[in-house]
Structure formats: C-alpha cells, structure tokens
TrEMBL record:
Signal peptide residues on this chain, from the entry's feature table: 1-21
Name this protein carries in UniProt: Lipoprotein
Keyword vocabulary terms for this entry: Signal
Organism, as annotated: Desulfovibrio gilichinskyi
Highest taxon of the lineage: Bacteria
Amino acid sequence: MNRIILILCVLGLLSGCSTHAPTMQGVKSYCRSFSTESSCDVQGDLCEQYSAVLLKDYSSAAECRAGCESVQKQYDNQMGLQNCLPIFEAVGDKCNEYCDGNYE
C-alpha cells in the first residue's frame, strides 16, 4: 500500500514537468505576471518588446536568441533599472527557452 502511494506521489510530481517549449503566449503571460519591485515601471514596455521579438519568423534558434538579446540591450543603457533586473533575467531566459524549443 505504501509503495502505491509513493508511486502515485512521484507520478503526480512528474506530471507537472514538461519538456515542451513555451508558447509565444506563454512567454507573454509569464512576463506580465512576473512580480517586480514597485519602482520597476518598465514591465509593460518590456513585455511588449519581447512579444514583438517572438512574433517574427527566424531561420534558427541563434537568430531568435539574438532578437531576445536585443531587447535586453535596449534597456542596458538606461540608468535606474536595477530594481528591474529580476524580470530582465527571468523573461530573457524564457525568451531563449522559446527560441531553443521552436527553432533548430
């Protein structure tokens, strides 16, 4: 009986894991729902920039990732965005994950 419960628990935990690439809508939703500092006021603009990048067609994952990196570079030069660093890193990673999963 304990073995069955253990197996069910493991299967339940694994059911939440997925090897599927995030969708474009998933990246956008992730960006919009990301909790930021109250002094980070660029979240909406950032999410729109990433959405614009993901709407384009690319010939490779590297080209797509370059698009993701271009969003980061646009904001790198702006001072006072230290409170926004967590969202830049998290959504940048999610954008790259989208590229890696949807392009070769």
